[in-house]
Amino acid sequence: MGKEGTRVRSFIFDISCSNASSPRIFLAIKALFPDYNVYIVMRMERFMESKAESATVTVRLNKRLKTRLEKLAGATGRTRSWLVADAINSYVELQEWQVGETKKGLREADEGDFAEDGEVKKILKKWGVNAP
């Protein structure tokens, strides 16, 4: 049950995609269903590069994290190397997107392209934020 005894409504989306790190997918679905809890299962359709196209990178992990990685590799049927490469790829994609959006916002601000007070209040109200 949700707030004040109301029923919590949820959606679970099962999505096949090539970029599971993209927060845009989640935000777009969440915007369509703002009153629902949204859970997304993303199926990775990535293909690792061949060894001829890859490079070796050494990473130091604490013992606890290494053990967790080994357990995850066993549970998913993936190699530790695949999981680490996939995690780094997801991180880099997310950071590239975030840096790009930040730069875009700074360019817009430099050009004087700001949201009007009314627009901001409307969005805050939509999300249940009480702003003066």
Describe the fold and architecture.
This protein is α+β, with helices and mostly antiparallel strands and 132 residues long. The protein has a domain at 68-132. It contains 4 helices and 2 strands. The chain has a two-stranded parallel sheet with strand order 1-2. The radius of gyration is 20 Å and the shape is elongated. The model has no long low-confidence stretch (mean pLDDT 76).
Name a few traits of the molecule:
49% helix, 132 residues, alpha+beta, single chain, two-stranded parallel ribbon
- Terminal Cα span: 31 Å
Rg, Å, rounded? 20 Å
- Helical segment tally? 4
Shape designation: elongated
Broad structural category? alpha+beta
Succession of helices and strands: EHEHHH
Strand order of the largest sheet: 1-2
Can I get a quick summary?
With 132 residues, the protein is an alpha+beta fold. The protein has helices at residues 23-32, 63-76, 80-110, 117-126, and strands at 10-17, 37-44. It has a domain at 68-132.
Chart the SSEs and their pairings.
Layout: E1 10-17, H1 23-32, E2 37-44, H2 63-76, H3 80-110, H4 117-126
Parallel strand pairs: 1-2
